Amino acid sequence: MNDTDAAIDALLADLGGTWETVEQITTARERLIADLPDWTLPAAYGIATVDAAGAVAFARANVGVHPLPAVVMSTVLGHEGGSAAYLLDATSLDQAIRLLAPAEACTAYEHPNLATWREVRKALDAGETAVAVFLADLDYSGADPAVLALKDIALANPAAEAD
Predict the structure, then answer these.
(1) CB 3.0-4.6 Å disulfide test: which of 20, 58, 73, 97 passes with 105?
(2) In angstroms, rounded to a whole number, what is the distance separating the alpha carbons of residues 74 and 61?
(3) Going by DSSP bridges, is the β-strand pair 129-135/44-50 parallel, antiparallel, or unpaired?
(4) What is the pLDDT of residues 50-66, one digit of tens each?
(5) What stretches of 3-101 adopt beta strand conformation (E)?
(6) Helices (DSSP H) in 35-89: which residue ranges?
(7) CA–CA dist 57, 142 (Å, integer)
(8) Angle at 97 between CA 81 and CA 110, to 5 degrees
């Protein structure tokens, strides 16, 4: 068990193994945010696959919506803010799925991010490369191709979801 697994165990012990209500999800989200000093919800975030040529294909991109998965992924990856892309290995994605899974008990939401993460996890087993991407704001001027691809989605679909 690594430090992240131990931290997830502690969080789940504290927050409970299932979050059946919107209030429980809100409590979990606020707790995770409190544990990441200076963290703010990014303008957009998502999970993508990257082919051998470096082309980025988003399996799911969220623009201004679904804050819980954003903070869950940030917690697992240690993302404290800003715009960045992180290679996802099977262990990190398993940890993120495990930390987000208690929200599945709440039937007020459909949980599209969790479903997508599980599909991307299968893609990792098939040898694909995956990245988690955060876009702090639409003024990003860096060179990371995954962040730039997410910025293009965010500009084309403000406050929307891309599948």
Answers:
(1) 20
(2) 15
(3) antiparallel
(4) 999 999 999 999 998 88
(5) 44-50, 56-63, 84-88
(6) 67-77
(7) 19
(8) 95
Note whether 137 and 44 are within 8 A (CB). Answer: no
**If pLDDT is split at 50, 70 and 90, which confidence band does 108 have?**
very high
CA distance 99 to 73: 9
Rounded to 5 degrees, φ, ψ at 84 are -165, 160
Residue listed under structure tokens 């000093």: 37
pTM of structure: 0.93
Residues in Cβ contact with 33 at an 8 Å cutoff, skipping those fewer than 6 apart: 39, 71
pLDDT digits (tens, 9 = 90+) for 28-48: 999 999 999 889 999 999 999
